[in-house]
Amino acid sequence: MLTLEEGVEELTPLLKSGRLIAFVGSGMSIDSGLPSWDGFLEDFISFCRNIKDQYGRRETGVFDTLLPDKLLEDAGVEKEFRPAHVAMVLKDAIYSTPEHIRSNIENDFKKWFYRQFVMAEPNKNHYQIVGTKYPFILTSNYDLLLEEAQKSIGVPYGSYSLFDKERVVSAIYQNAPSIIHVHGKYDEALFDKIVFTAKDYIEITKNKYPGSRFILQSLFAQYSTVFFGYGASDPHLEDLAEELSYYLDFSVDVDLPKSYLVVLKSKIKDDGIFDRYKEALRTKLIGINDLQEYDQLLWKLNMAAPREKIDFSQD
What's the pTM? Predict the structure, then answer.
């Protein structure tokens, strides 16, 4: 495991040479009042309970069958071990309601999803990341806080959902700095274009938008990657590791792009999950003692390679 100083030493030359991209997870938005993935799933379980209470009074017996108390109790336990699966089971259950109320529940879900993110504002993490010279910033977050941060400080980034695959490929071809949402943006929940559950991941990335896989493969073949704001239990990180290791054998002793995962030492569990990431993606861990050191890492990388700002007032 690399120390903070060793991590900066390895990342800096990659950053300065334009060979390092950032991959941003939910941990970077916690200071903006948004939940981690675990917290977001807990909120979804509460939403399901509310749906049962709201519609169950009118549909006697239906929700006791589709969303029994035991299922909701099990979800509270299993979310720690199989979060994406729990989200899938619960979403399938509430979407399996009788046709005459299904559309209402689907709309309730989309509106609930939208409301989780719409009022949040960027924090210092977002400003440091967009102010650093990453060729591309990938994020599994649904929020648009990176975009809000870049607008206020005048740095040139395009913003795309991975489902806009032609526009993303165009940006990569033109080497145009971009923020790419690999699982969709929160406002796209209204149009069923988000990856939330295990089934969504399969349906959207492999069936509806197969080009998204090609884009990720292309980026990870060209750039080294540093992951910010991810915990070991984040299902998005597990999906990504499995996807990439399927196409490239990162254990082969050749000069392939490297991955760096920034982790809080206190969050490392003795369950071997980080070892699996290290083997699957030849990932180096950068161990951080506390959030203050996380801030230092982002700041030092920003100082090493700041992004050029644009004065939009002259337009």
Answer: 0.87
